[in-house]
Each structure stands twice: as C-alpha cells, then as structure tokens.
C-alpha cells in the first residue's frame, strides 16, 4: 500500500503538484488520469523517488520515504518495478538479457538461478521461444510483455507503469491491461498506472484518481466514474459524443 499525504512539488516558481493526498491499495490496479500537463508524470516520478517533494509524505507500507537513510531508500527502490512508455528495452540485448538485467544489477544470484527466474517470468507473460530474439524483431505487444517481465523479475512490491498501452492496437492494449491486472492480483502488488486510455479506465480502473491542474479533482472506481456528476471528469472521460451516449444509456438502464 502506498499512502500519499499532501504532496507538493514545484519547479522554480511554478507549483506542479498542489497538495495531493490518496491511498493506493495492494493487489489493485490504481490509475492516474488527467489532461496533458495536469501533473501525472511528475506525480508518478515522485512515487518512484525520482522527484523529491517540497512538502508532504509518501509512505510505502509504513515506511516514510523522506525519513529513510540512503541504504533504506536503495532497498525500497529495488522493490519497485517500472514499465516505461514505449517499453524502453535495450536494443542491443536479446529478450533474455533484457529481462535478466535487473537481476544482474541488483542481486548476487548465480546464472542458473537468474535463468530459472527469467524463464518463469517470460512464461508468465506468455512469451515462449522468444529468449534469443532482439526487440526489433518483436511486435509492440510482445515488447510490452518483455517490459512487464523485466519489471516483475525482481518480485516487486510496487509496479509503476507509464502509458503501458501507448502505440498498441485496442485489442492488444486490453490483453496487456488484463495481464498487468492479473499479475497485480497474483503477486499482491501495489500497481500505479499513468494512462490516457479510456478502455483501461473502464476495464481495470479499480481505483482511479483524476488530476486537474496539479490537484486531485476526483477519485473513485470504474463503476463510479460512469455515474459521477463531476463536470471536469465527465468532460474529460466522455470527450466524444459516442462515449456521452454510452454513458447516458448506462445511466438510464440502471434507473
Ligand atoms: N523537470 C521539470 N522541470 C520543469 N517543469 C517540469 C518538469 N517536469 C514537468 N514539468 C512541468 O510540469 C507540468 C506537468 O507535467 P507532466 O509531465 O507531469 O504532465 P502530464 O500530466 O504527465 O502530461 P502528459 O499527459 O502530456 O504526459 C508541465 O507543465 C511540465 O512542463
């Protein structure tokens, strides 16, 4: 579980995060949504420890980040997995080497043990016979699977995903969303996903926080987002007429 208390972050004189408080539960897919420039990436980077907040606290299962010493911070970072936008695989490494990379960096495991773990996670993301392939030889969906395998290879307690569906067709995007949700539940991970994808919001939005201009404007579940009367949220989520009609039909059906 990650608890965020009154998080503020400025760059120069410009305040980007203006006092965000929320809770991200374990075993759940938590989504951050909001318009471009609303502060989602700055927020996600703050959760990763890449930005130091000016004010407020981030608490990881009882550990207040700002109160940890350097070793404790390093240990905590090793409990975090990250799926970057565009997968960010190493082009010069094959799939097995990409996935093994965090184990080589952060553990002292023998090769056989690392290989066993790599085989396990690649199987878990349904990638078989891809060990010796290079990223350029893989489809976008397969690259995402490799990125997810790499993010979970070190058994993270926290998984952060930045636009995991960018560049994928809608069907593959749903498969990737479902895979992230399954893994989150299976290994009881606290997962936080930064997304623009409204399909993701509807499919896996167990908890959604909507940022607007650096504030938390709204939070709730995918069921609640259908019913909310918050204008900023409805304008954002139902920006197309088609979505507005679907929402109207849903509300009428429920009444
Ligand atoms: N390192 C930085 N230095 C100065 N300003 C920054 C820095 N990082 C982000 N910003 C500013 O913070 C604001 C929020 O940016 P952020 O990248 O968090 O938006 P976002 O909601 O993730 O947008 P998008 O959906 O387009 O990725 C922007 O105005 C951006 O210019």
UniProtKB/TrEMBL annotation:
Residues 2-238 form the ABC transporter domain. PROSITE patterns: ABC_TRANSPORTER_1, ABC_TRANSPORTER_2. This is ABC transporter ATP-binding protein. Keywords: ATP-binding, Nucleotide-binding, Transport. GO terms for molecular function: ATP binding; ATP hydrolysis activity. SUPFAM superfamilies: P-loop containing nucleoside triphosphate hydrolases (SSF52540). The keyword Nucleotide-binding applies. Coiled coil: none annotated. It comes from the Bacteria.
């Amino acid at each position: 579980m990650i608890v965020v208390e009154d998080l503020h972050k400025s760059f120069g004189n410009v305040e980007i995060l203006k006092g965000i408080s929320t809770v991200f539960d374990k075993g759940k897919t938590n989504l951050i949504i909001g318009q471009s420039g609303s502060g989602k990436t700055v927020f996600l980077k703050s959760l990763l420890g890449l930005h130091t907040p000016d004010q407020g606290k981030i608490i990881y299962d009882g550990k207040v980040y700002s109160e940890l010493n350097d070793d404790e911070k390093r240990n905590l970072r090793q409990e975090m997995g990250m799926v970057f936008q565009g997968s960010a695989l190493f082009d010069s490494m094959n799939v097995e080497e990409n996935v093994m990379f965090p184990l080589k960096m952060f553990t002292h495991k023998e090769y056989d043990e690392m290989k066993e773990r790599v085989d396990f996670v690649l199987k878990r993301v349904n990638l078989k016979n891809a060990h010796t392939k290079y990223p350029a030889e893989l489809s976008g969906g397969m690259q995402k699977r490799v990125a997810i395998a790499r993010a979970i290879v070190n058994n993270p307690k926290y998984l952060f995903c930045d636009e995991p569906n960018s560049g994928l067709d809608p069907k593959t995007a749903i498969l990737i969303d479902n895979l992230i949700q399954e893994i989150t539940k299976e290994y009881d991970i606290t997962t936080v996903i930064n997304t623009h994808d409204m399909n993701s919001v509807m499919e896996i939005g167990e908890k959604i926080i909507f940022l607007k201009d650096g504030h938390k404007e709204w939070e709730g579940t995918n069921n609640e987002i259908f019913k909310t009367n918050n204008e900023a949220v409805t304008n954002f989520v139902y920006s197309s007429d088609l979505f507005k009609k679907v929402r109207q039909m849903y509300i009428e059906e429920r009444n």
